[in-house]
Amino acid sequence: MRTKTALLIGYDVETPYRSDVTVKFLELAPKIHEEYGVPCTFFVLGKALLYHLDEFKRVKEKYSYLIDFQQHTFSHILFKTLVIEYRNYKLIKGAHPKEIETEVRITSELLKALLGVKCIGLTTPWGYHRGLLDRPDLLEILWRNGIRFTRSWGRDERDSLPLSLDVQPFWYDELVSGYPPILECPIQGWHDNALKERLKSREEYLDYVKKTIDYTAEKNLVWCYVQHDHSSFWNDPEMKIVEEMIEYALDKGVQIMSYKEFYLKKAEERGLKIDE
User: Fold this and answer.
1) Apex CA 127: angle with CA 124 and CA 128, to 5°?
2) Which parts of 67-135 fold into alpha helices (H)?
3) In CATH terms, is domain 6-270 a member of 3.30.420.40?
4) Which residue among 43, 112, 198, 216 sits deepest, i.e. has the most Cβ atoms within 10 Å of its Cβ?
5) Domain limits of the chain?
């Protein structure tokens, strides 16, 4: 059964120090989602959680029915090595699996202890070509630490952007026998911060967003959208782009879901047992 066309809104809240921008984001983004009654997911960096704990607690207390909290590692550690073409083939080395496991475990423990959240989802920093299809060792690490869905495929074969929307969510174990049943939600299209670095106006960015929603609706696809706390206010101090994106998607009949909600729906379709 194909899931109805959907927009999954996920914010990487990742500023690793005390930031007025993150404070403003944690104040404004939940209000926007409350106004429209649509959910989203905050993929939280462990350091960001510690530096903005009071704000995160307020969001969790007031908006838990709309805001889904998942993780983004503790310190933005890389899972895989990247060689990025558009940055003059810059080499960025991935971390050792033991370091990755420590960061994932600690961040889940912090979310549980400080916010009362059982973490089952993770966005890998940067995103990679083919996600974790070539790293069964990392998938096993995530599985034994309670991670059941990921956003890890975010780049093309040149480690560049954007990733085609034709790369749709999939189960790792349905592609490769012996892998754990983790759902991959690829970050298709542009990472918002990367695209905003290239554009001159908010209108250009909004035009891209609307065209992507049109394509999503026309082809009955799922768009796994990514935005960041630190780039949310680019030429847009009140985050009106998000409001217009939500309005446009709803007008087009596109369902807006959190990543956890999407995972639970897909798991139910498969008949998987859910431990919550």
Assistant:
1) 120
2) 97-110
3) no
4) 43
5) 6-270
